[in-house]
Amino acid sequence: MKIIIIGAGDVGFYIADKLCREGRQVVIIDNDNERLMSMEEHIDAQFINGNGSSPDLLLRAGIEQAGMLIAVTNRDEINLVACMVAHHFSPQTLKIARMRNPDYQRFPEAFKSFNIDFFINPEYEACKKIEHLLEAAPAIDVVKFADGRVLLVGFRIEADSLLDGSKLYNLNKIKPGYSPLVAAIYRGRSVVVPRGADQLMAGDIAYFAVLADQLPRLLKFIGKRETPIEKVMIAGGSNTGLYLAQQLEQKGLTVKLIEGSQERCEELADLLSSTTVLCGEGMNAELLEEENVSSMDAFIALSKDEEDNILATLLAKSLGVSFGVTLTNRLDYVSLVSSIGIDAAVSPQLAAVSRIMRFLRRGKVRSVEAIRARNAEGIEFTALESSKAVGRPLKEIDFPEGSLVIAIVKENEVFIPGGDTVIKPGDGVVIFATRKAISKVEELFSVTFEYY
Fold first, then answer.
1. CB contact at 8 A, 26 and 5
2. Theoretical Cys-Cys bridge with 437: which of 269, 402, 406, 419, CB 3.0 to 4.6 Å?
3. What is the pLDDT of residues 291-343, one digit of tens each?
4. Measured distance CA(210)–CA(203) in Å, rounded
5. Under a CB-based contact definition with an 8 Å cutoff, are residues 26 and 3 in contact?
6. How far is it, in rounded angstroms, from Cα 252 to Cα 231?
7. Which domains does the chain have, with CATH numbers?
């Protein structure tokens, strides 16, 4: 089935790359011919140079035979018009539009007449990701499954940690009676789904699978202090900053927001109720000290300039903030910033990709989450009666190298499985899988694309 992607930016590139690797027929439209030529070296797809909202161009791309159209350019109007034109020629084609304007998030009912099946707002998705991080601080990454009942939580292994040098099969000796499941180890740019004999080392990013109510126990195990976030400073009054401040206000948190534009500060002051809006720069050390940044529980840099975000977060950390998060538009930065002293990085593009992939696989797949840029995913499957993994103990199933079952979700029960656990039809199965293993895992669970 043909899938048309309008927009060859980071989001469009990753989705196209993912689908092409799965053998899908993909057409990519963008008005930047140099960008298309660059993509052509890496992706086996059809490329068309031009405006993706053009009726003639959409017909040339084969919109009448397309099962899905994904409009993810940086301009809301192009995405909106492209979906409307696509609906005119092919009402049955599923249409997804990337929309940055907050009105699309606030008033979804007003846009039903546009016949767009799904809106995706990268900034709003990034805001939700940051909220999850604040809930699980001091974790540097957290991914939720099973309606938040299962967490995949990432921590950096410190040189003075009891975990440094520990083999996984010996973890129960650190705290007798408790041995958490390590789902993945990131070492530099490589990711490993570990076995019992694998060893944790200082500098590793280890991802632990844990039930949400067991997170405090995990923190104690790895020597991290539970740090409830009550006071937050946000640098950058972008839409993401506004969304986040509004959400934190609703939770009763104390919020200070720094924005460089006087005009934008006035807008933010009107839109926010209890947030203190400050006009200034997030990299102004004098301002941060005047506002007692060291007393804040978290500092989050959300300006449009990722280098400024990184520098502002490092400055705040040097002034005493214990937990710092930076926003970046470059996917390759997500896995790098923790090595320079920043606790976590969030990418609107990566958050959007996860959301779109989840929608692409609706039906037999409940959710998909990209982990640390693009080299692994957490996937929540629904086990079908015909699935090869159903009816046998996990230890007897030939899971591909680079994959691990991290949780089983039944109607009224969620648990971390053992080798004797048997998957039954209708069970939810949460799996961590490297990029190379994903297609084989999907085959194991008889997963195919479904369109609605």
1. yes
2. 402
3. 999 999 999 999 988 899 999 999 999 999 999 999 987 766 776 777 788 99
4. 21
5. yes
6. 10
7. 2-120 (3.40.50.720), 132-221 (3.30.70.1450), 229-350 (3.40.50.720), 365-444 (3.30.70.1450)
